């Protein structure tokens, strides 16, 4: 038992008692189990994640520095450069301008091509190019929607707002991502395509997950899954893909709320759906299939704190056919596993591999920033390679 872990445990127990909370009452407020909290307070389990410490500090109403003196001082959140133009897009009145003006006849072929390109860029985590294209595409689509009631135009608009929501979530702009996802669902409702609406629920689930609003993520995914059950029973491949993707997100939510049995049960269900499909697909940009299930098995193992299981499962996966976004996320999850094992060299190696695959995704990922800070705290002298990576990712670690 490390002295630092024991000291942290005593601090948490002291402030919990001061607030008049039992372990049973505090645990759900920080999205952890009572057993986990008991182990931390007794000093037999470390609590190194900055995200978790921030939640504990917020609930117990103490400064983060009280629990983690080496943690960086909370600073104003710097908005990523690519986020501002996307937020401005959502604030513009393109639809009003289209209704009051005389929009030109839409070039559907060009709109289709650009909507496809938007998702190519989203899957490749190329946010700068994605933002530039959305800045021109969304106004043209809103103008086209104001001039006719074609279901195809609203489908293109919904798909583009889905991509916008995905990008904003990756950039940690969850309030704006929620707005984009809600607009996508509304536009999808005018197409008569229930699966396009369900994709909106999938995007919204990811937004809520990123914002750590796990109860809303679970509710959104559950209600959408229940609504799709009839189409799933018919064996429609596209419905199976969306349903499977929602099931994977329910597994992640269960893992992050310390419900291990339910998490693996959801993964078993997702694997059944993937076996029924028998191939990796990308219906409604969900990239669902056997490989994506395997990727989520790694993520769930990491979220449950089973680093060995995550590393073992990751070694069996061939993700070469998946998008850069999905491959990058797998590498990030493996880095998380090695971080849990306090192996700085291996964790950094996987972060650097992820950086080569999807640099913008890595630089903007909350887990990556948390990992880099955790890795820095593991060494009295920060390794030069870690310091260089932190600089590229925009993570301040110099004072830790």
Task: Give the strand tally.
Answer: 0
What is the residue-mean pLDDT, rounded to a whole number? 87
Rg value: 22 Å
Strand-and-helix sequence, N→C? Answer: HHHHHHHHHHHHHHHHHHHHHH
Poorly predicted runs of 5 or more residues: 70-76
Helix content: over 70%
Shape estimate = globular
Helix run count: 22
Largest sheet geometry: none
| Structural class label | mainly alpha
Strand-residue proportion: under 5%
Distance between the termini: 22 Å
Describe the structure in your own words.
By secondary structure, the chain is an all-alpha fold. It is globular, with a radius of gyration of 22 Å. 46% of the residues are buried. It has 4 domains: 65 residues, lambda repressor-like DNA-binding domains (434 Repressor (Amino-terminal Domain), Orthogonal Bundle), CATH 1.10.260.40; 114 residues, no CATH class; 111 residues, no CATH class; 56 residues, no CATH class.
Summarize the structure.
With 400 residues, the chain is an all-alpha fold. The chain has helices at residues 3-18, 23-29, 34-41, 50-60, 64-67, 83-91, 94-100, 108-123, 127-147, 151-170, 174-188, 194-210, 214-233, 237-256, 260-277, 290-303, 307-314, 324-340, 344-357, 359-364, 366-377, 384-393.
């Amino acid at each position: 038992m490390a002295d630092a872990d024991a000291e942290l445990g005593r601090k948490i127990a002291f402030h919990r008692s001061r607030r008049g909370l039992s372990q049973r009452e505090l645990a759900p407020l920080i999205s952890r189990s009572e057993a986990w909290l008991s182990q931390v307070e007794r000093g037999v389990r470390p609590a190194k994640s900055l995200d978790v410490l921030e939640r504990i500090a917020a609930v117990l109403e103490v400064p983060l520095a009280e629990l983690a003196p080496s943690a960086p001082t909370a600073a104003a959140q710097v908005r990523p450069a690519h986020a501002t133009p996307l937020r401005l897009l959502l604030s513009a009145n393109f639809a009003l301008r289209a209704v009051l003006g005389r929009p030109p006849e839409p070039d559907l072929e060009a709109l289709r091509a650009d909507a496809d390109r938007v998702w190519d860029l989203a899957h490749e985590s190329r946010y700068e190019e994605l933002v530039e294209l959305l800045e021109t595409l969304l106004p043209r689509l809103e103008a086209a929607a104001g001039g006719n009631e074609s279901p195809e135009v609203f489908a293109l608009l919904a798909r583009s707002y889905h991509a916008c929501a995905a990008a904003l979530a990756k950039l940690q702009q969850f309030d704006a991502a929620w707005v984009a996802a809600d607009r996508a669902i509304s536009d999808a409702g005018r197409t008569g395509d229930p699966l396009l609406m369900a994709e909106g629920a999938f995007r919204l689930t990811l937004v809520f997950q990123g914002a750590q609003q796990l109860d809303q993520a679970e509710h959104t995914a559950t209600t959408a899954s229940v609504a799709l059950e009839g189409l799933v029973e018919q064996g429609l491949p596209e419905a199976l893909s969306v349903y499977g993707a929602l099931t994977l997100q329910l597994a992640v939510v269960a893992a992050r709320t310390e419900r291990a049995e339910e998490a693996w049960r959801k993964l078993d269900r997702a694997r059944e759906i993937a076996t029924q499909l028998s191939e990796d697909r990308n219906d409604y940009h969900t990239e669902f299939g056997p490989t994506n299930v395997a990727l989520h098995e790694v993520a769930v193992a990491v979220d449950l704190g089973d680093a060995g299981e995550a590393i073992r499962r990751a070694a069996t996966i061939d993700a070469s056919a998946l998008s850069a976004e999905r491959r990058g996320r797998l590498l990030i999850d493996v880095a998380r596993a090695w971080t849990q094992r306090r192996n700085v060299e291996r964790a950094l190696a996987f972060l650097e591999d992820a950086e080569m695959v999807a640099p913008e995704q890595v630089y903007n990922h909350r887990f990556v920033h948390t990992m880099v800070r955790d890795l820095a705290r593991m060494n009295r002298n920060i390794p030069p390679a870690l310091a260089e990576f932190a600089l590229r990712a925009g993570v301040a670690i110099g004072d830790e």
